[in-house]
Amino acid sequence: MKLDLVLRELHAAESSLADELVKVADRHKVDHEIYHVARDLARWSQQHVHELTEVGRHYGLSLKDEAQPDAGLLSSVRNKASELAGRRPEPGLLLLRDLRRLHRIAAGVSLDWELLAQGAQATRDSALLALAKRCHPQSLRQMRWANAMLKTISPQILAS
Amino acid sequence: METGWDTAMDRVVRHSVELLSEQGPSALGFYTTGQLFLEEYYTLAMIAHGAIGTNHVDGNTRLCTATAAAALKESFGCDGQPGSYSDVDHADVIALYGHNVAETQTVLWMRMLDRLAGPNPPKLICVDPRETPAARVATVHLAPLPGTNVALMNGILHEIIRNDRVDHDYVAAHTVGYEELAKQVEDYPPDRVAEICQVPAEQIRDAARILGAARRLLSTVLQGFYQSHQATAAAVQVNNVHLIRGMLGKPGAGILQMNGQPTAQNTRECGADGDMAGFRNWANDSHVAELARLWNVEQTQIPHYSPPTHLMQIMRYVEQGTIRFLWVSGTNPAVSLPELHRIRSILSQRRLFLVVQDLFLTETAELADVVLPAATWAEKTGTFTNADRTVHLSEKAVEPPGQARPDLDIFLDYARRMDFRDKDGQPLPPWHDAESAFEAWKRCSAGRPCDYTGLSYAKLRGGSGIQWPCTAEHPEGTERLYVEGRFWSAPEYCESYGKDLVTGAPLEPTEYRALNPAGKAVIKAAEYLPPHEPSSEEFPLHLITGRTLFHFHTRTKTGRAPQLQAAAPEVWVEMSVKDADNQGIGEGDVVEISSARGAIRAQVRVSGIREGVVFVPFHYGYWDASDAEHQRAANELTITDWDPVSKQPIFKTAAVCVSRVGVGDGNAAPAPTNTASRPVTADAPATCGGPAATADEQPAPAGGVR
After folding, report:
1. Taking CA atoms, what residue in A is nearest to B183?
2. How is chain A split into domains, by residue range?
């Protein structure tokens, strides 16, 4: 059985998604919708990491429940940088790049949840399947959000 | 410097032409209001979306009614008020969600008072952190902590479902999504909700019992939900109460997702506010093609690659310098938008060409490159449609003062000077006055939910208003929508495919088609998320802003009406007895209210507001301020944040602290005493009209012509 491998992968992927969402929020603090929604969505991934850590114990894994909101010095530096560049159009391109990257990371997470759900079904692990059913839709929503924001703001950034 | 119309318009046109050739349509933005006439909005929408081809047109309805429209689109696939004001006469339960009706819709409140004072009065449920006039007479008054409306609604839905007060036949025949809702609200038992919202669990159960037992339920919703955290998600849950109880489309069973301004409905239906004309779906190519045929322009001319740009995003583009021309008509963003120091700095940029069209020299006009004097109602002719779809004709009674011109004439003058043309070289827009604009609008509305084809100026002169849709088959209009559970939500017809209630991401057409192939109502569940700015040690109180009875918006008009001005002459802040006592603050003391954005000063009114919350009226700007400091406008304090679904800014979820800077002079705060700001102590002088407010009138004989 290789479910522990999938769990480990998924845990790493969710952690980096949580981390990336917080970083993108900080980098684009003056794009207020990005800032607030990315932080809301980071909370989903943080919760997933927490649940994966719990469930990992049953598979002999000791995963770190460490996807905590990054509120330290780096966060304030990113905030400040965002505010200083707030009047310039260039951060627009950076935002497009960040959303593109977020979409890719969330897509990876989504695929990992799918793998976990498939493995859980094959091994009749109902607890794991329930977890995947609960969390996977949120990964898809994170992905769609990145896609939708990209679609909405790119015309102005590219045409101006 | 004062000048003539030719000079002013030439300047506006020269800048438009330069920017169009330099950057294209994306450099131009328009920000209008909820107070013009239908004909003016439709003209502006065609100029912006059709003639120029910019995606950047919105109204200040974004601040007042965007969530009403969004909630209706989410639940019913389309904008359009389900209920009618006449439902007040039939309802056995009236629920007011964040709707201080006594101060925002006084005539509607009189209608409710009639019922409350008559035989078989309806039960009244009121959700408001303030002790409003409605709260004082309510059967149940719930005063939740700001930003927790979704939790409260989920708790109420939890109880209705747990008590099985669900109309299962209606749900099965006319809706999709019920199971998801039942699953979602399972997690919101009253005891948990009581903790989140800080209201007694028993009150939540009482409210749910009354709603569950209602036979004719009328619900109204306004800014307490629309301008708060998770605005659309909360307003949609009100729709859900009606859908699971089958309370739609019959007398007394209606929803009024209210509007804050007289013609906000027209801004929405004409497409001058981030929608497409005639409730067309920007994401549906065949709708855009139809509009292009109507306007006789190329389909590619009408931007539909993304949703029309909402106001807060327009401001961001101005901030970044990619919108360089902004035309503001009939609204005052320099006082009405959140985080004012930011807004002032955006609007004062030299690289921005700002045109302001208004009745008076507002705070925003002070920042403008060109100010255009506009006429107001009674000085011009046009139609307006109120919140329950009733269309009225408002005729010109007097000449506008000085050189002021109707907004319609100004927009048409701009179009002619810009020489906008359709595919055949004909002038665009093709109409020349209010009535010809109305006739063109009728063709645009044909076959859409807001169908005006059965109306004409002549017909509107005959009576006191007709509710759309009004067609050849329904020449007297339509009192209630969604009779017998038929909706406008079919995938090929609907105005919107809906959005994710948390992320705001639009559903793809294929997703919507899979979700709702048969065009039923959509029951959408939503999880509660904590507000983005919780209270803290530094800022322990929650700020909400709002209206008082005597003023409207930024007092551009009401501040100049002597009696209204006298009733509420200066800004104040309301605090609860407990919060005031904790800090040793008394009625009339001068305090500084601070948030992470700024600080203002005001006298304290100790009122019946709930503990932990302070209220500041948003009316007071700077045109008549006694000094040059920016210490008066409530929006110095508010946060830049908006609902991801409706894009409505959040004015009712910010953290502040209050500190005393001076003992009062013994006088009470300058707040009215006969409204939600009624003092808890009796020694404030009563607000009253005085001799100027009295009139002698001989009543017409009963049964006479009105």
Report:
1. A134
2. 3-159
Are residues B615 and B670 located together in one domain of the fold? yes
The answer to whether residue B140 is domain-embedded is yes
Query: Domain residues for B554?
Result: 541-684
Instruction: Identify all chain B residues contacting A145, using CB atoms and an 8 Å cutoff.
Output: 500, 503-505
Burial class (CB in 10 A: 0-12, 13-18, 19+), A95: buried
Chain B residue set in contact with A, beta carbons under 8 Å: 23-24, 26-27, 55, 303, 305-307, 309, 312-313, 316-317, 319-322, 500, 502-506, 529, 532, 640-642, 644
User: How many angstroms separate the CA atoms of B112 and B116, rounded?
Assistant: 6
What is the CATH topology of the domain spanning A3-159? Ferritin (1.20.1260)
- Per-residue pLDDT tens digits for B283-327: 999 999 999 999 999 999 999 999 999 999 999 999 999 999 999
Residue B406 forms part of a structural domain: yes
CATH number of the domain at B575, please.
2.40.40.20
CATH number at residue B295: 3.40.50.740
Residue B427: exposed, middle, or buried by beta-carbon count in 10 A (0-12, 13-18, 19+)?
middle
B182/B386 Cα distance (integer angstroms): 35
User: Token digits for B642?
Assistant: 């908006």
B498 plus B582 within the same structural domain: no
Instruction: Please name which of B46, B27, B21, B17 lies closest in space to residue B427, comparing C-alpha atoms.
Output: B46
Do B223 and B369 belong together in one domain?
A: no
Q: What is the pLDDT of residues B621-680, one digit of tens each?
A: 999 998 889 999 999 999 999 999 999 999 998 999 999 998 888 899 999 999 999 999
Measure the CA–CA gap between B118 and B131, rounded to whole angstroms. Answer: 23
How far apart are alpha carbons B413 and B621 in whole angstroms? 32
In this predicted complex, what is the ipTM? 0.94
